[in-house]
Amino acid sequence: MAVTAVEVVYRGIFQKSLSRNICRTIVLAARKEGKIGTAFGRYGDSPERNGIPAKYFAIVADDPTELEETLAAYEPKEVAVTIVVDDTLCKGVESWAWYGLQPINELTVEGGTVLVTSIQPEEDLVKDMHVKDVPYNLSIIKGAKSFSGLWVYKDDHTDVRILGALAKVCPNLVGLEAYVDTIAEQSDDELKAHSARRAYDRVSVSPVEPGQGNPEEPFSFDKPGWTKMGEAIVIPGIEVGGGFRGGEGGYQPVRNDVFKKFSTRTMRPVINFETCTKCTLCWLQCPDSCFDVTPEGLYDSDMESCCGCGVCEDVCPVPDCVTMVNEEVFDDNSSQHDHWKRDRDGYMKWLDEMIVVAKSEKEVGAGRSHGFREWGEYQKQIEMTGVAGDD
Ligand code: SF4
Ligand code: SF4
Predict the structure, then answer these.
(1) Rounded to an integer, what distance in angstroms lies between the CA atom of residue 194 and that of residue 70?
(2) Where is pLDDT greater, at 171 or 94?
């Protein structure tokens, strides 16, 4: 090894402590092997905001000179391991010192690993991740998303389990014993070292071949060069929208062409156009002006703009007319209204299935809720993974 970098991709605020703990422990453990390292964070938005994709990095080198050479760069250009602490991020991340949507595996080197905490099957995660032209590995640590935010530390062993798995998928970064020793020094809970060892034994590793995954071209746009800057500061107002996707009637506001927000979303609203009373509340209350007014006076949320806050579900007075559903089950951002117009029976069948998904997840305690907390998530995670010592 000369220099090895890993990144932790997380949701701003909600998983900040978790990501920082992982990267700091990597650096402390590296010292035990006579290496040197540094850990640092990068926000996807400033100040860091709820749910916005953000990153932490850990860089480990054999000697200080090698490390210093890498620190001239704003962030590593490639990483041996991409750690993903919320599996909805596998669809790509936006608003992180780049422009457009960055595939989750963008920085992962050939033969490197994307390491995801998830209860989804491998094929579903691969389907979400953009195609790469070199082979890499997908590793899964079985477990639900853990939320250790800016002000809280959720001691559910997710950080130590990720470190144990990291020793398996990237042994030349830091070995398992160095992690275990560091974890033991930082905590008087012996179960943590045990959890790390067990994650080392249990993490799955599967190859992903070039061409496997989501073939879509990620959303991108050209940055204006500095020579294009005008004099003074000009903040153009939002222009008046016109028509509804080119049709007659309805209304679609003009939206930001470059900041789409959808990668912030972990839930999305699904709309029952048959029971909607056209009361306008969702349209009025949506903080991001996501709703297009259709020519019939219905309301269709634009999935490229929706950040999944759930306000529309809260304000809608009609039962099950707006239902927030886990983002994991969707494959694209297409219009629900277009789907309904094209195939009403098919849409209503699909909608019923979505509502069943949302309700059953809440019942078993696995569903998301607005604000990225999860009902009974910790309990479910313990049952699923046996974190607390069920040998
Ligand atoms: S969840 Fe509803 S209220 Fe929130 S951004 Fe999306 S459409 Fe708007
Ligand atoms: S709040 Fe509900 S009933 Fe009212 S317009 Fe929106 S979807 Fe229709």
Answers:
(1) 34
(2) 171
